[in-house]
């Protein structure tokens, strides 16, 4: 009986084994929930598996004084289907990445330079905060709201990895105030008054 169970488990595991080493994204094809289709192996080169953009500082001359340089599947076709990607985070003094979420991935942040105050909010509304210094790592579970703030007087740099080739991104402030979400509904759902909502929409470019 045991040998039958062993053979059955072996057959089951073999039937689900990967028959391809990789699936480099064909970025000219559609981006589906299952990812991109595979580029023809004859057209794959080593350049598909290398990304050099993380060595260059991002432009932090913006309203949040921060920049994220992504190495997601759209920039790095070799990660397609591998459940992994990366990014560089640059924070100028007083820079902040506002509360945001990655619907498709957990995030691991590694501080390369400076100090970063980082945290996330659990689904039970517990808050987990830490000021991270060079060499520290913090994890942000998938789908939870989290943020990063420069906690020092000089620039801060971090390298981030994700558990998806395309982690997705939704920034809470932009979702509320940078689009045409009607102001009366924003006020109802956030308990902010009309003047506050209009002020924030004016800053972030929203209408309605």
Automatic annotation (TrEMBL):
Organism domain of life: Eukaryota
Primary location group: secreted
Keywords tagged on the record: Apoplast, Disulfide bond, Glycoprotein, Manganese, Metal-binding, Secreted, Signal
Gene3D superfamilies: Jelly Rolls
Positions of Mn(2+) binding: 100, 102, 107, 146
Entry-linked SMART domains: Cupin_1
Residues in Cupin type-1 domain copies: 52-198
Signal sequence annotation: 1-17
Gene Ontology molecular function, alphabetical: auxin binding; auxin receptor activity; manganese ion binding; receptor tyrosine kinase binding
InterPro entries noted in UniProt: Cupin_1, Germin, Germin_Mn-BS, RmlC-like_jellyroll, RmlC_Cupin_sf
Keyword Disulfide bond tagged: yes
One cellular component term from this protein's GO annotations in UniProt: extracellular matrix
Disulfide-linked positions: 23-38
Database matches in Pfam families: Cupin_1
Binding-site residues, oxalate: 102, 107
The keyword Acyltransferase is annotated on this UniProt entry: no
Subcellular location: Secreted, Extracellular space, Apoplast
Family designation: Belongs to the germin family.
Protein name: Germin-like protein
Organism: Eucalyptus grandis (Flooded gum)
């Amino acid at each position: 009986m045991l040998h039958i169970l062993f053979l059955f488990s072996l057959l089951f595991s073999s039937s689900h084994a990967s028959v391809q080493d990789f699936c480099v994204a064909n970025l000219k094809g559609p981006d589906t929930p299952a990812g991109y289709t595979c580029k023809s192996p004859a057209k794959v080169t080593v350049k598909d598996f290398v990304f050099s953009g993380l060595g260059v500082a991002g432009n932090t001359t913006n309203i949040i004084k921060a920049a994220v340089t992504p190495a997601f599947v759209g920039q790095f076709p070799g990660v397609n289907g591998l459940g992994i990607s990366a990014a560089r985070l640059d924070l100028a003094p007083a820079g902040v990445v506002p509360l945001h979420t990655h619907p498709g991935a957990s995030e691991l942040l590694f501080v390369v330079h400076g100090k970063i105050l980082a945290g996330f909010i659990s689904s039970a509304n517990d808050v987990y905060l830490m000021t991270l210094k060079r060499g520290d790592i913090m994890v942000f579970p998938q789908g939870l709201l989290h943020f990063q703030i420069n906690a020092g007087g000089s620039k801060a740099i971090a390298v981030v990895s994700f558990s998806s080739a395309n982690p997705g991104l939704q920034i809470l402030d932009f979702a509320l105030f940078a689009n045409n979400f009607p102001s009366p509904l924003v006020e109802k759902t956030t308990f902010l008054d009309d003047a506050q909502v209009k002020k924030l929409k004016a800053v972030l470019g929203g209408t309605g």
